[in-house]
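Cont'd.
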Amino acid sequence: MMASSYNAKDEDGHHPGSVGSGGPGAVKSKKPDNTAFKQQRLPAWQPILTAGTVLPAFFMIGLIFIPIGIGLLVTSNNIKEFEVRAVAIATSYCVIRALCSYTAPRTKDFSNVFMYYGLSNFYQNHRRYVKSRDDSQLNGDKSSLLNPSKECEPYRTSDKKSIAPCGAIANSLFNDTLELFYIHPNGSRIAIHLVKTGIAWWTDKHVKFRNPGENNNNLSIVFQDTSKPVNWRKPVYELDPSDPDNNGFINEDFIVWMRTAALPTFRKLYRIIQKKKDNMTPTLPPGNYSLEVIYNYPVRSFDGRKRMILSTISWMGGKNPFLGIAYITVGSVCFFLGVVLLIIHHKYGNRNNNADIPN
Amino acid sequence: MKLIGATAIEDKLQDGVAQTIEQLTKAEIKIWVLTGDKQETAENIGYSCNLLREEMNEVFFVAANSPEEVRQELRDARLKMLPDTEEDKFLIPETILGDTPKVVEDENVNGDYGLVINGHSLAFALESNMELEFLRTACMCRTVICCRVTPLQKAQVVELVKKYKKAVTLAIGDGANDVSMIKAAHIGVGISGQEGMQAVLSSDFSFAQFRFLQRLLLVHGRWSYLRMCKFLRYFFYKNFTFTFVHFWYAFFCGFSAQTVYDEGFITLYNLVYTALPVLGMSLFDQDVNAGWSLEYPQLYVPGQLSQYFSKRAFVMCALHSWYSSLVLFFVPYAATYDTARDDGKDGADYQSFALITQTCLTVTVCVQLGLDLSYWTVVNHLFVWGSLGMFFILTFTMYTDGLFQLRPSSFAFIGTARNCLNQPNVWLTVALTAILCVLPVAAYRFFYSQISPTINDKVQYRPAPRPRRTRLTRRSTRRSGYAFSHAHGYGDLVTSGRFLRRHAPARSMGLISTGRSPGFKPTGRSAGYSPVGREQNPKQKVEPTSLQMFRAVKDTSF
C-alpha cells in the first residue's frame, strides 16, 4: 500500500518545491504566476470615510449649493409670467368667439415673449397614446404613407384610405386659435404680430419630420391617396398653405403637438412675440390687452382644463422656483449635517484611535 | 543484555502549524483533531500545537469500554463544565422531535476545557442515542482531540457536526484515510505532499502546506464573502431603484404602464452601463489588505455572523432603493413641471424627461458604486469611468440622425440628447439628485464609524503594516515531544465491528486495510531520501496530523 502511494505520486507528476525542468517529459509547474494582477496586489487607491474627507466635503457642498440655489431662485423670480385660465364654455363643438380683456401689467421687458397654450389633466403620456404614431410616415417614407404601421390603430385608415398622419396623437391635434390685441389708449385695437415658425426643435423640423414626395411643393397631389385624420377639419396639406415651408408634416404647430408631453399638466409653445428691433421699446408695453380665442378643442369630456401663458425665458428655462428652493434646502441641510457630524466626531471620534483592537 | 543500538521515528509537524492554529482560534473557529495516532501522540501533538494548554482548567479523557461508561464519562465532563445542567433531559432521540433535527446551540462555559476521546469510545458515542450527548459535551470544550479514529469515524464526526450545529465545517487532511472526511465536510481541503494525491483529488481546495490554510480562510475566504455581499447588495439596489421609478410614474401616466425610460436604455442599463463596474467590485475589492487580515483574525467574525448580507441588510437595501427612487423621480418631475427650454421651446416633453431621468439614474448609481468601492485599482477606474462614458457615447449615438434614418420607429428619440443635455437646468438636476441620493448614505456610514466603529473601521484607519516574517518557532511547552509505544493499538476496535454503519455490508473494504496510523511510516522519509531515489527538500516535512475544524455560528436568526 505504501509502495503504491509512491507510484501514484510519480504518475501524477506533482513535485512540490522541485524545479520543473527535469529531463524529457517534465511537467510544467502548476504554480500560479507571481504577478500583481493574479496575486491581488494591484496598486490601488483606498478611500475611507475619515473626518478629514467627509466633513470638508459636506461643508463644501453646502457652500456651493446655497449660492447656486439663490441664483436660480432670483433668476426664476425675474421671469415674468402671465396666465389666463380658459373660461368653461358649455358646448364643445361650437365655434365661439370669446373676447376677454385683460390688463396685463407688463413691466418693461425687452426680450422675446413666448405665448404658450397649456392643458391640464391631459395624459399625453399614456402608453397606448404614446405609441400611436408612425415615425416612418412622418419622415416622408412613401410606403408608410400608404401603409401606416399597425400601432396607429384604430386611427389608421378611414374611408378605405390610409390616414396621413395616422395615430391618436395626430388625431388629437390642438386646434384652438389665439390672437392677442393691444388696446391703444385712444381706443384702437392693434394686433400683435405672432410668429408661428421657430417654435419646434430644429432636429424635429429638419430631420424627423419630412414631407413625402421630396421637394414637390404641390402637397395636395402628394397626399392624394390619403385621408385626413378623423377629428381634423382640414387635411394636413392645408395646415398653412401660405407658407410651403410650414405645410404638411413640417407644420410647426403639428410638430410641437407631436412631441408628447411627459406629465398630465403641460404647456406647448404656440407663438413667439419678437422683441422690438431697437432695444428701447418693451416688447409688450404696459396697458390693456385683449385675447381672442376660437374654441375648437373640446376638453370638458375628460375634465381637462385649458390656459394661455405669456412668459419670458431665462438661461434656466421657464419660471420654476423648484430648483432654486431645492438647492438652497439641500445646501443648508448639508451644512447643518456637517456641523452635527463635526460635533459627533469631536465627542466620539477618538473611539477609532484609542480603543485598541484586542490581540 | 548488550545494547546494540536505538531507533527513533521523528514525525514533526510542518512549519507554522502552531501559529496557524493559534490564529484560527482567534478567528472564532473551533478546531477538532481527528487522528489515527494513539492517545499519547495525539496529546503531545495537541500540546505542541497549542490546542491543549497547561492553563486549561481540565482535560477530560474518555476511554471506556462500554456504552454506559462512555455516557457516564461524557456526562461527568459536562456537569463539571456546567454544573447546573443536571436536570437537562437531553437524551431524546431526534425521531421523536419530528422531521427537523434539533440544533445544538453553543453554551458558554467558564474556563477552558479539552476533551480527548479514543476511537473505541467514539464508536459508542456516535450511536444515535448518545451522539447528542457527545456533541453537546464536545462543543463545550475548547478543543476536542479524537485519537485512534478510523476514516469512517472521521466522516461520521463531521456529519454529526453538520447535522446538529448551524456551522460550516471544513476538513483538512493529506492522506487517503482523510478522503471520506474531506468529502463529508462542507469544505474539503487536501494537502498535497508525501501521501500522494488522493486527498487532493477529492478536495475543494488543495495546497502544499498546512499553514496556507490561514491565508485561505482569513484573507481569501473573507474577501470572497465581502465581495459577494457587496455585489448582492449593490445589484439589488440598482435594480430596485431602476424599477421603483416606474411605480411613481404610474401615478402620473394614468397607470398605463408607460416606461419612464427609453427602451434602448432599459436594454443597455444592466448590460453595458452598470455591468462592468459591479463586476470589477466583486473581483478586486478589498476592505483590509492581506497583511492586516492575517494580523487581526477577529476580522473574520462578521462573515461567521452573516452580518454583511442578512434579512436586515436586504430590508435596508430595499429602503434605500425606495428613497432613491423617490428622489430620482420627483426631482426631475418638479424641475420639468410645466417649464420650457432656455430658448422657449419644449423642454418638458416625454423624451426629454426620459433622458433626464436616465442620466440622473446612471450618474447616481455610479456615484453610489464609488461610495461602495473601497479598493480602486486601475481596472476599477477603467470600468467605472468607462461605463459612465459609454452611457453618454451610446446615448448620443442612438439619438443621432443616421440611425434614425435607418429605422425611424426604433430610434425615435432623435435629437433629444442634443436638445436636452445642453441645458444647464438639466445638469443642475442631475447633480442635485446624485447628491441627494448619496448624501444620507455617506452621513450614515460616517456617523456609525464614529459612534460604534467595527473592527474593520479600526483597522482601516491604521497605516499599512510592514511586511513581517512569520514566526516559525513554536510556543515553549513544558511537555516534551515524546511518546511511549506501550499502549495497545486499536485491533480490538477493528475486530469488534462497532465502527461499521448499520446499513453497510458487514465487510467494508479498504477501511481497515491500512491498520496503521498516518503518523507511522515504515520507510525513513524523515531520513531525507525517498525510496524513489531523489534528494528531497529537507524543508518538506512529513504530513501533519489530520485536522478538522468547524466554525461556531452565533446568529440564530436563520
